[in-house]
Design goal:
This protein is of the alpha+beta class and 129 residues long. The chain is built from 2 helices and 3 strands; from the N terminus they run H-H-E-E-E. It has a 3-stranded antiparallel sheet with strand order 1-2-3, with helices on one face. Helix 1 runs antiparallel to helix 2. The longest helix is centred in the N-terminal third of the chain and has 45 residues.
Length: 129
């Protein structure tokens, strides 16, 4: 007996719609993870730039921790902007080395996930002979 053309042999009616909905969800999740990675990278880049700049300001002959902190705060306000949330700058200067640590969190794209950013830069103190 021959079946009519319009009658389907399998029971997969509507399966494509469910698959598209599932794949769309996975694609959106992957895109959110990618954007979160980019925001974390921008925050880490801004923190590294701030730490390098503050270390250079602190390590020069006659440089002070206060000058490094002022420079770090100016960089965070102007160049980094909102990429790094709740930034904290710790500067330690000894007779031979300067250590600058910048901590904060990246902008959250995924709800409830606040990726931490911590960058530490070490530099020798400038000496005049």
């Amino acid at each position: 007996m021959k079946r009519p053309r319009w009658q389907r042999l399998d029971g997969d009616r509507g399966a494509v719609t469910v698959e598209v909905a599932g794949y769309t969800l996975l694609m959106l999740l992957a895109m959110m993870i990618g954007v979160q990675a980019v925001t974390w990278g921008l925050a880490a880049l801004g923190a590294r730039y701030t730490a390098n700049h503050a270390a250079q300001q602190t390590r020069v002959h006659g440089g002070t921790v206060a000058a490094g902190e002022a420079d770090a705060n100016a960089i965070l306000a102007s160049a980094v902007g909102n990429a790094l949330n709740d930034p904290r700058v710790d500067i330690d200067r000894s007779a031979t080395e300067v250590a600058v640590t910048v901590r904060g969190t990246a902008t959250s794209i995924i709800p409830g996930f606040r990726p931490p950013v911590t960058v530490t830069v070490h530099a020798p103190v400038e000496r005049l002979n």
